[in-house]
């Protein structure tokens, strides 16, 4: 039998609440079942569009694009690998902010949560997001150095193969220039850390007199 369990997290005013919904021939129960399906669909599509690609990909990569343009020469091997993939990303994000995720835009007009779509998905992006990506998920005993939370998940398993192949290729490429991790740590221009992006004394495009911007 198909079932949907919806959970309301606990708050200061109300305790946690869990309720299971199933298909039913009863009119009221059937309506509740349809509401539950709509609830799941809204969350699933919101996560698919606003969390995975937007918050955790397009937005999260912006600081690295800015840092690379500020700190690296156009001839630097890392910049040469990043630039083909990232050169138009900020422009794409700007267009998305103008017509996709803006107030009254496509997202708010099409998604079930309407004007609350961005508010519901915004916790996926924040200052701790970068540390979470760096420190989470590693398992040296796993085949590819990363253990899946759900083992019977073909989409994730196939994606892990692609991720592993890219990791091996990138590691091999950069090993030609930086044989030891300490060489990267000691090179100031490669310290793409979150706090550095937000510091007030970070040079802007207008005042930067270091490496070329493009």
Automatic annotation (TrEMBL):
<dbReference type="InterPro" id="IPR013819">
    <property type="entry name" value="LipOase_C"/>
</dbReference>
<dbReference type="GO" id="GO:0016702">
    <property type="term" value="F:oxidoreductase activity, acting on single donors with incorporation of molecular oxygen, incorporation of two atoms of oxygen"/>
</dbReference>
<keyword id="KW-0560">Oxidoreductase</keyword>
<dbReference type="GO" id="GO:0034440">
    <property type="term" value="P:lipid oxidation"/>
</dbReference>
<feature type="domain" description="Lipoxygenase">
    <location>
        <begin position="1"/>
        <end position="214"/>
    </location>
</feature>
<dbReference type="GO" id="GO:0046872">
    <property type="term" value="F:metal ion binding"/>
</dbReference>
<protein>
    <recommendedName>
        <fullName>Lipoxygenase domain-containing protein</fullName>
    </recommendedName>
</protein>
<dbReference type="Pfam" id="PF00305">
    <property type="entry name" value="Lipoxygenase"/>
</dbReference>
<keyword id="KW-0223">Dioxygenase</keyword>
<dbReference type="InterPro" id="IPR036226">
    <property type="entry name" value="LipOase_C_sf"/>
</dbReference>
<dbReference type="InterPro" id="IPR000907">
    <property type="entry name" value="LipOase"/>
</dbReference>
<keyword id="KW-0479">Metal-binding</keyword>
